[in-house]
Automatic annotation (TrEMBL):
Catalyzes the synthesis of 5,6-dihydrouridine (D), a modified base found in the D-loop of most tRNAs, via the reduction of the C5-C6 double bond in target uridines. Specifically modifies U20 and U20a in tRNAs. Keywords: Flavoprotein, FMN, NADP, Nucleotide-binding, Oxidoreductase, RNA-binding, tRNA processing, tRNA-binding. Residues 13-315 form the DUS-like FMN-binding domain. Gene3D superfamilies: 1.20.120.1460, Aldolase class I. The active site is at C98. It is an enzyme of class 1 (oxidoreductase). Its EC number is 1.3.1.91. It holds the Pfam family Dus. It catalyses: 5,6-dihydrouridine(20) in tRNA + NADP(+) = uridine(20) in tRNA + NADPH + H(+); 5,6-dihydrouridine(20a) in tRNA + NADP(+) = uridine(20a) in tRNA + NADPH + H(+); 5,6-dihydrouridine(20a) in tRNA + NAD(+) = uridine(20a) in tRNA + NADH + H(+); 5,6-dihydrouridine(20) in tRNA + NAD(+) = uridine(20) in tRNA + NADH + H(+). This is tRNA-dihydrouridine(20/20a) synthase. FMN binds at P15, M16, M17, Q68, K137, H169, N209, G210, G211, G231, R232. The record marks N95, K181, R184 as: Interacts with tRNA.
Length: 333
């Protein structure tokens, strides 16, 4: 079934390997209720053959949640799509943007931009299997195949298979010679190619990704495109998310303070601590909550030096808050 009217997610938080886990999503959800959150990319074969509860479980409090899949086998992806729809995910995204050598060796990720008909087969198979939206995240090109015309041809072919939303990282990927980290900032941003894509395909939902780190930059993307995906800024300055609902969606709910965000996760911390999840694996997502603010160093130091202790719980977080407040007070007087 083709979904022709995906929900109006103006902002989404990118799938980030080794970061976009369920704890990250829970914390982000304390700051933005309306934005779309993603899982890390999960290999389709891992879902078929692996520990599904470990890979797929999430809290209803995290919704809406999109799962990003990696793979190139239409039948396997269709099977996975049905599994994750039944698991409760709101959306499925196919990764056609990751340039890592490991991903390339499996013939998925960014290298699939050179195989638009293969991607179209995958999208068609998943759309046949589920009733939730199936989307694609891709680059503007790869290696020397990076003309606007080549990207537009890719989108045209994949859209004909039923994809209605494209998340476009506005950089090309070098499949050889650059690491995944380098591919996130060395190839130049080409926003105009993404804007042109929206003009040429007005019936599609086009979401832009890459280098967008402030509310002002997010706002500047509308109405040139339909949505904005932010990534590393959610790690480096997570409190940005606290203003998204009000500034972008027009919600009138008061913006929580940083301290209120932290307070909102304390019971969550203890819930998982009782299940032998170490504090640092949760609070690493809030180490930068005071980025650019007084006392951020003492906050981070207390959590990082003590969060590995299996006995650490919400009390340690309260201690870190108290130490920060004391530091600020003493510096004033």
């Amino acid at each position: 079934m083709v979904i022709t009217s995906p929900p109006p997610y103006l902002v989404s938080v990118a799938p980030m390997m080794d970061y976009s886990d369920r704890h990250f999503r829970y914390i982000m959800r304390q700051m933005t209720k309306k934005s779309l959150l993603y899982t890390e990319m999960i290999n389709s074969q891992a879902i078929i053959h692996g520990d599904r509860p470990k890979l797929l479980n999430f809290s209803p409090a995290e919704k809406p949640v999109a799962i990003q899949l990696g793979g190139d086998n239409p039948q396997q992806l269709a099977e996975c799509a049905k599994i994750v729809e039944d698991w409760g995910y709101d959306e499925i995204n196919l990764n056609v943007g990751c340039p890592s050598a490991r991903v390339q060796s499996g013939n998925f990720g960014a290298c699939l931009m050179a195989q638009p008909h293969k991607v179209a087969q995958c999208i068609a198979a998943m759309n046949q299997a589920v009733n939730i939206p199936v989307t694609v995240k891709h680059r503007i090109g790869i290696d020397d195949q990076d003309s606007y015309e080549q990207m537009a041809n890719f989108v045209k072919i994949v859209a004909q298979a039923g994809c209605q939303r494209f998340v476009v990282h506005a950089r090309k990927a070098w499949l050889q010679g650059l690491s995944p980290k380098e591919n996130r900032h060395i190839p130049p941003l080409r926003y105009e190619d993404v804007y042109r894509l929206k003009r040429d395909f007005p019936h599609l939902i086009i979401e832009i990704n890459g280098g967008i780190t402030t509310l002002e930059q997010i706002k500047a993307q509308f109405p040139l495109v339909d949505g904005v995906m932010i990534g590393r800024v959610a790690c480096d300055n997570p409190y940005l998310l606290a203003s998204i609902d009000q500034e972008i969606y027009g919600d009138d709910t008061p913006i929580p303070t940083r301290e209120e965000v932290i307070e909102s996760v304390l019971d969550y911390v203890d819930f998982w601590g009782d299940r032998h999840v170490k504090l640092n694996s949760i609070m690493r997502h809030l180490l930068q909550i005071f980025a650019g603010q007084p006392g951020t160093k003492i906050w981070k130091r207390h959590l990082t030096e003590n969060g590995y202790n299996p006995e650490a719980n919400s009390q340690l977080v309260r201690e870190a808050l108290a130490l920060r407040e004391s530091k600020i007070t003493n510096s004033i007087y």
